[in-house]
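Notes from the pairing session

We agreed to fold both candidates in a single pass and log them together. This is the raw record for the first candidate, unedited. Please don't reformat it; downstream parsing expects exactly this layout.

Candidate A
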Amino acid sequence: MLDQKLKPDKTHGSHRQSVANLPPSPIADGITNEHRFSTPQSKNVDATAIEQELKAAIEGEVRFDDGSRALYATDASNYRQIPIGVVLPKTEEDIIQTVAICKKYSAPVLMRGGGTSLAGQCCNVAVVMDCSKYYNRILRMSKEEKTVTIQTGIVLDDMRHTTEREIGLTFGPDPATHNHCTLGGML
């Protein structure tokens, strides 16, 4: 169990502490918080600057608070990596801007689906993008071509029920998490 005291962050007036600024504290066999909750790619990332620039540039939600970061720190596995922040894009342009801003600050980016992975694929010390709230529509269906064009955040069952009802086609893979996994996360 970690026993870290948070000090007020003068920038935000809260008890927020950046992932990169956790004090080294032995956990076991020389592993420290610094190693556990950061990566070489995230170590010197300016989370505050990224947050401010994202809030000014995108329509979607920008969440860099401790609660949101904790919610996105895990998936259906036992892995836990606290993200730098979370973005819920509303548009394709939001996704493009988020990637561009993260590139500007050399911040890693991770696209996340429904969080149903069992091996930690959607956990990382990165700016996590979750498209399931807003970017989740069917854009085009073609019975003749047997194709569907979607946004990445659509839940498998939502797409499947619509295509079965409207064009008589279904999607073959049937994972146990079909009612809450996203198509983007499956790819």
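Candidate B (folded immediately after A)
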Amino acid sequence: MLQRAARFLTRACKLVAMPPFTPPTLAVGEYVLRPFRSTDAAAWYAYLADPRVTEHTSWPPITSELVTTVVAKIIADYDEPKSLRWALARTQDDEAIGSCGFTRWQREQRVAELVYDLAPAYWGLGLMSAAVRAAMAWAFGPGSFSRAEAFVMTTNERSIALLERTGFRRERMLGGHRLARGVPRDFYLYSVVCRSCDVRHGLVRSDL
């Protein structure tokens, strides 16, 4: 009896086991969303150190050591996967000028949190909107997500506008939701739910 039960559990575990995950590479016009490499830490630090990039976020004080550690974790998380954060890079020289992707990925529940950032030299060009659309098209297609969430500080007007342009809807305000360099700050919870999605042309649509 115990042997039969053990065989049953073994077969059940094989049925629910997730296949190995390989991060995809996604085209974004003249740019590309590609897996992070350890060599991206210097370029990422170069623009994250600009206070304008992290002012309305919960990033801690930026140091090169912190960014190197975060890049190593991003790469390690690809294996499980716990997250899927891409580097947004120029195709002509492969230089990272932004990042976009998903953290807190609950693969079995098909839910994750959208995150992104961009070097100020590329603000206002629609580039991050295009990157988010590409990431969400993958998420609601090959990624098999059912829901994506985004948490945005209530003072982050650029990020709020981006989320609303790309199909996210505000659910509620979360008072003191996260610490921003030691200070509790209010955040909005945004989400998009895929029940019957149309991701043609990189557009996110849902029947929220």
